[in-house]
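Fresh eyes needed here. Have a critical look at this protein's tokenised backbone.
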Amino acid sequence: MTTTLRAPRLQGVLTALVTPMRDGQVDYDALTRLVDWQIDQGVDGLVAVGTTGESATLDMDEHVAVIAHVVKVARGRVPVVAGAGGNATREALELTAASEAAGADALLHVTPYYNKPTQDGLLRHFEALARATKLPIILYNVPSRTAVDLAPETVERLAPIDNIVAIKEATGSLPRATELVARVGDRMHVLSGDDATAFPLYAVGARGVISVTSNVAPAKMARMWDHAAAGQWDEARALHFQLRVLNHLLFVETNPIAVKAALALMGRCANELRPPLYPATPGLTEQLKKHLHAEGLL
């Protein structure tokens, strides 16, 4: 049975924002500038305090404060999705309530990490979160980080829940994305969670990307989606190949190491991360500098 896709605003290019830092603290001035620039460049949404936003090393107060700041600066111009996941259901419920109170438009919920719940455990976890909020929820499957894979069969069991509206599929697998579109694409948006495969995922029916690369090249990422959505595949393909090297360089070292190095080279934030992550190696920094210069981004 064909049904209507939910939460139509949660599609296109949603930037997985970095969290700028200076002297060990969140740099809210740099975050303000970054949010305004992203929106001016044409992105369709912002994700605050996801993996790229260093959610693993922000404390609860910082986490919620960053979400609230992004909401305040965005001023409703684009939807703000709050990273609200946790490896304990209780923690995820607390972040859900705090994110809702901070004014987020939607929630990104990663599969609980480290403790490796079963598929039934994942089902119960996401059911509990959906019951606890009226906000739209985007599921987030990234087994390379969490050590647990949200199976397509489990996603299909979650699809009838009204406020589970999308999944960020970050396996980088075209067959997996194709299966998800076939199973739930009439009820949920399948979003790429892997920049290098965003374009081919669009071709099989993905409805956008939660992007690291758009921190650095938001206009190109936005245009690639716009062309694909309009059926202008030659133009979208050309942008995919223009972004190929940048997509590679930004993941040579653990994200968000490279993207913060690139943004620092561009003068958009300090090249500072929360330990145990540290700035990019000199070799990668030089490669980024040369490529950004060649692409007119410096």
